[in-house]
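ok trying again, last paste got cut off:
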Amino acid sequence: MHIHDLIGIGFGPSNIALAIALEERRAAGSRAPDTLFIEKQPGFVWHQNMLLDQAHMQISFLKDLATLRNPASRFTFLNYLHDKDRLQDFINLKTFFPSRHEFNDYLGWAAAQFEDRCAYAEEVLEVLPEGRAGQVELLCVRTRDARGQTRERLTRHLAIGMGGAPHVPAGFQPLKEDRRVFHSSQYLGAIARVPEARRIAVIGAGQSAAEIFMDLQGRSPVHEIDLVMRARAIRPSDDSPFANEIFNASFTDFVFSRPDAERAELLEEFWHTNYAAPDLALVQQIFDVFYRQRVSGQDRHRFLRRHEVAEVQASREGVTLTLRDLNHDLLQHKTYDAVVLATGYERDGHRRLLKPLREHLGRFEVDRNYRLRTTPDFKPAIFLQGACESSHGLSDTLLSVLAIRSDEIGQALLQALAGERSAPPSRLHEAPTH
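nice, full thing came through this time. structure:
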């Protein structure tokens, strides 16, 4: 079997940035590793179901795939605008925050330049060890394509950039197949499948919940939308200059160097810069919606602050939520035609894929260059992108550090490849390939 130097799992922004960093190192005279990226979607997609018409980026376009590492890169957002003949018009917008539609198009433009190195429409099932004489020398990546056929590929090293999986609270787990209950990551497609929905609950206090509430309230004058959250108020994100310094690449060094207890305190202190904190402008828009209702005397939408979902039941009539008013410890029952869960993401999918390697991975700790710490008999490097918040800080799941992180991983990969290449080992597992 052919042996790749690196296989990347997922081809979203993290691994696109890594592909760019490796390409630019090659152009500068570094060794060109044999890379392949595997993506389960049939083509490039980035938050496709949250590309709302009025949604804009929350971070500057300068925090793109390359600028902070190499402003002269041909993969910058500014060069994308130049390539699309829109640079002067964008300048006239006088903004650092492009629409989400445009930034998605930029990411797709960058991804398209690596189509020869990406296998789309394949889902990675697991990663298996390959070795001999008690040493794990290679990794076998087993995938399944859209036709149900499985395939195995060998690699010396691995980069996992698969993004987060939707978090569905326990009470809603039994209704995961009910089309009336869906996560915010499915929003546009899912809401189109329930055109009859008039009474809708949005669960959550973050940017996604706020954007979805504003989208729904503007769709139809007959919609009744309840925004449900445990918080007392919608707290805006702190994007002031000093607070934003925690997203600087240099701050990653500081966070990583702190003792565990101090690092946990830092994450808690700045938690609201990234979680449960929409943009201030969006908060003001929501307040305006409720204020205009008071002026008109209508009560079409409700802001159910300090409420939590105590129980969920589904029937032909709808999805009934038992809501607990945390201020008064009272229960009320409300039936909805649809429920949107803007409840965030889980970022532990890599543990499932790497389960066959569990004995070599210890506590899934990473070094400063995002490489998993492994046992001495384990040679491959496994890099994690977007799963290291607890060790590298709140910026780890964001676009802010992509350009710098990709270069750090690229450098660590080239150092790992500088060692002697192994001959194809004997198989450590037996499995059908189709």
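cool. The first strand starts at residue 3 and ends at 9. The chain has two domains: 3-164+347-417, 168-237+274-341.
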